[in-house]
Amino acid sequence: MSSYPLRKPSMEAAQAFVEVDFDFIIIGGGTAGLPIATRLSENPNVKVGLIEAGVLHSDDPVIYTPRSLGHANNPDYDWVFTTEPQANAHGRVISVPRGKMLGGSTGINYMGWHRASKIEYDAWKLLSDTDGAWDSDEIFSFIKRAEAAVPELENHDLYTSFSRSPDDVVNHGIPRSEAVGINGPIKTCSQKVYTDNVPAFIQACNTLEIPTNANPYGGHTFGVYDVRKNVDLETGKRVDAAEAYYVPVASRNDLKVVTGAHATKIEFKRKSDGDGKLIASGVHFVVDGNSFVANASKEVILSAGAIQTPQLLELSGIGNATRLAGFGIQPLIDLPSVGENLIDHIFAPVQYEVKPGIRTFDELRNDPVFRAEQEALYKSEKTGWMASTDATAAFVPLKWTVGESKFAAMIQALEETITKERDSLSPLQRAQYEIQLDWLRRGETPQVLIAMLSLGVINPEEGKSYFNMVSTLQHPFSRGSVHISKVDALSQPTIDPKYFSANFDLEALLAVHRGVETLAETEALKAVIERQTFPPVSLKEDKDLTDCLRQAFTSGSHYMGTAAMTRRSLGGVVGNNLKVYGTANLRVADASIIPIPIATLPQATVYAIGEKAADLIKNDW
Ligand SMILES: Cc1cc2nc3c(=O)[nH]c(=O)nc-3n(C[C@H](O)[C@H](O)[C@H](O)COP(=O)(O)OP(=O)(O)OC[C@H]3O[C@@H](n4cnc5c(N)ncnc54)[C@H](O)[C@@H]3O)c2cc1C
Hints:
InterPro entries: FAD/NAD-bd_sf, GMC_OxRdtase, GMC_OxRdtase_N, GMC_OxRtase_C. Its cofactor is FAD. By secondary structure, the protein is an alpha/beta fold. The strands form 8 sheets. Strands 1, 2, 12, 13, 14, 15 and 26 form a 7-stranded mixed β-sheet that branches. Strands 10, 18, 19, 20, 21, 24 and 25 form a 7-stranded antiparallel β-sheet that branches.
């Protein structure tokens, strides 16, 4: 472990940090930053420094008890950012959760471990230069490197047995034994506790011809299944980037981590030879109001996440030159797409009260004796309800949700809008929309995730139990932005996801809501549901429900795209080697490089980005 405390900011640690001549400095100790730091420091001959604004929370039950999820939305763990008032959501200001700690957002996320369909990762290639383009095989191989799935036999995927019949189960694509990693740092497992709503949901999906997918890791995600979780079956704890990647190698001499240290700017020199590229040579940071500069002789890697990576680029002089000049920042590289292309998934709940006797995770709220038993079981055996989260979900193409004729009308209207607005779209949007339209028309790739969740219950009555079917939109057409609001790294940037700026997103969300209503009408779900408690059942008309969706939706907390890895001519910020265009040695590696919406819970993909970045850097040096 570091000789300096990582649990609180330390001036001595900051001073010792800047006295090292680093080869590599990584900004942000999160989902991608920690894999990069730990993989690079496998070579004892390089010196690696990592600057993280949050601190280490080892053994904090708020983080590591799976059932505590949702309790970390306060400044001890979270940046607690918010959006600009959203024009298409009655001016609502929406919460933007982001983990602030060693481990980043993996310390506060919901632990769903998932990957997108192959076709979605293959689209990255369509948007990039040919040389070194990423594709699904490559991303799958790096996800495999990051993960350790508990072998099936030891932790059987019980959910397949809940299907109506074996005919409802599909198992296709790359065989699971080849697709899934077993030796990586991130331990993942299947659910051990299934509450009564889960079998009902799976059977309801089967009734509506959504198959049970026994191998959602093989390249085809369509179907209903239990999403694996990054929970360690042996310890019963959340597995985050800090515990999985950093803690086991913390005593390495060549790896120095400074926490409570807020990076404020990247320092550059300009190359004197022909290409005149910028060379990143150091990083400014502050600890408790005191400024420091650390030096890197080889590379600086920016892994501050999709909100703060563009902020730091702009503060360092990389971005839209006119915008930067307006803030009095000398533009070093005119890259107008920095901070553009902000993508987020959109979530909207439908809440149901269950019939008496049906058990959901609300048992823990309603029955103090049961809760005490479960807490004791967790303490002694590291298992039971406290070690569990609910993660059953259906990934479904929009076509299924809507029905053929309505779907055809929706697509036609969407195509007309895109054609009409073509001149005002960015080159990247035009390319993305073509790809997204193709996915929609084919009707095989899920655009929709319906998640079975017991979290976020609205106004629960004592003694009653509930679950939510959360409709989520995974391939939105709306694009927002993140930009600096002042020349102050410590203040939050202006975050404007522009939710529903593409009207299609709202129509699609309404269609998903209708799909959820149909699911609730199946015999399987009717057997467990007492009544719908949100949205109010009195809201029947499309117009009223649409209004309710504008009021009730939340961010999926899956921000991506703000430093997109695409061709420069399309408005890319980084190339296939993750280097920022116009720089010789500044790379971005985090969720901001994801170029197009992907229908997945993104952390496994971001870990893969970190793993791949480490490989690219090792190969170059
Ligand atoms: C509430 C919530 C629930 C989620 N649920 C899931 C889920 O179930 N499954 C899933 O797959 N994904 C989920 N996600 C999304 C997933 O966790 C993120 O997409 C992913 O972790 C992002 O990784 P990143 O490396 O881009 O950023 P992060 O992991 O957030 O890392 C960025 C790091 O940089 C640090 N940093 C930022 N600015 C600075 C600075 N100026 N100086 C120093 N350090 C800085 C931050 O403190 C942070 O540690 C969820 C996210 C949230 C917030």
